[in-house]
Design brief:
Layout (H helix, E strand, L loop, with lengths): L26 H13 L7 H15 L8
Amino acid sequence: MSGSAFRSGVECGYPLPHAGPDARLSDSLITSVAAVLVGYGFPRLANPDRAALESALGAFLYNSRESKT
């Protein structure tokens, strides 16, 4: 496995290898995550916020192409 170890010694499952576009990282997923944030009392997302959330989720979920050597 290519995950890194966290403090507890358990291997992390993220980030995933980046193999190209992933249909699971969709507008529906971004809308769902935004709704969870609002449900926890955070402000609603404006369009620029949605783009930033999508970028942040992509950075969390996948290894960047540039990091491969």
